[in-house]
Amino acid sequence: MLKFQNYIDGEWHDAADTVDVRDPANGELLGSVADGGAAGAEAAVAAASAAFPAWSRCTAGERATVLKRWYQLIVDNSDDLALILSLEQGKPVAEAKGEILYGASFIEWFAEECRRAYGQTIPTHNAAMRLNTIRQPVGVVSCITPWNFPNAMITRKAGPALAAGCTVVIKPALETPLSALALCQLAEEAGLPKGTINVVIGSDAAGIGKVLTQDPRVAKFTFTGSTAVGKLLMSQCASTVKKMSMELGGNAPFIVFDDADMDTAISACMATKFRNAGQVCVATNRIYVHESVHDEFVEKLRAQVAGLKIGHATEAGVTMGPMIYRRAVDRVQELVQDAVAAGAKIEIGGEQLANGENYFAPTVLTGVMDTMRIAQEEIFGPLAAVQKFSDEDEVIRRANETPYGLAAYVMSENIRRANRVVEALDYGMIACNTGVFSTAVAPFGGVKESGIGREGGVEGMAEFYETKYACFGV
């Protein structure tokens, strides 16, 4: 499954140039992948466009059968897929294995869900007319996916698109292309027809992006990444009025009330803050703890952080690996220095580790203020920034004072309070008394500048259909 060529129209393609893929833990070369560029993207779009009519005419059952085979091959090869993912991305193998199975669940869910693409018979307004609707696939779908979940962010997009009868073109992150190519190998073995799934890797992000957002043969564009890049891609999609799904940046609040179960709150915080070295779009960004339990929370959090084992993804017992590249480490260091200069205190960590150039110590800061950069920007690193609050209305106001609205977390044993706060927080997803909530069966997405559209659940399937209305005179 270790491939180094682009996958277009069911064939493996070399290119004149290549890009190196390196292990972020030590910089070792894993291989050189064909640099497809804009020309590769155009060829992939052409292949997907040519394959669409036949794939879209397959019955839902026929598509489901192929996708179920793909799902099973992913599960059967999950150990190898996890190793590939760990080596190119850095997360521990056990964590990578979890991503593989999580990613596979989207293929399974949407393979089943596509059988339920129901239309409607509408009660008529005129006795001489009959009104109904049908749901049809949108067409060619282009995807740009990030490096932090190089398997699951593909299956979460390609799964519903293919199940609906669409064909797909994927540009994976330049840092982590090997997981995408391995998925193509298994898709080919599962029997996905030529051209239904295509992957183009390239260093010319702007050139490839323009093809995927502006080619009129592409009907839908879906992106996971930063808000700044998402805005640019949205503007490019406007030229051909494409359907879009955008899962963008976040600034997730984690609110611990005085009636919270402290062990539950600490466990949830660790899960959402330090998974994948904090490089998760729904990772906790601002930790608000009621002043009466603040010191207890910080003490227990510091003890848990001290127990993390840092190292290479393949080392036994490792619970946190490296960050993806040096500039990510440098940025987290800058956020720490800025906060400390403004009065924050380092409780543990706060510096780069000697393991390698991409390791940053898991860190807890206290005395953080809303005006600091660390509270205004998405951290995307292993850095827990703790603040105090005194009452419910205050913390809701502070939590909502951000242009982002992806995920939020509420820790409280008071069911009435929990419901009030969940309804008051301006976020697309809210987890109460847990730090892990994403699943194939529920919608995933944000509000405000955190994106548009949803992935997962029945809402995720609807993103890849058009509703056609028909009126018959009788």
Automatic annotation (TrEMBL):
Keyword Oxidoreductase assigned: yes
Biological processes, Gene Ontology terms: gamma-aminobutyric acid catabolic process
PROSITE patterns listed in its UniProt record: ALDEHYDE_DEHYDR_CYS, ALDEHYDE_DEHYDR_GLU
Domain Aldehyde dehydrogenase, residue spans: 14-469
Family annotation (SUPFAM superfamilies): ALDH-like (SSF53720)
Catalytic residues (UniProt): 247
Gene Ontology molecular-function annotations: succinate-semialdehyde dehydrogenase (NAD+) activity
Keyword set, alphabetical order: Oxidoreductase
Family in the record: Belongs to the aldehyde dehydrogenase family.
PANTHER family documented for this protein: SUCCINATE-SEMIALDEHYDE DEHYDROGENASE, MITOCHONDRIAL
Name of the protein: NAD-dependent succinate-semialdehyde dehydrogenase
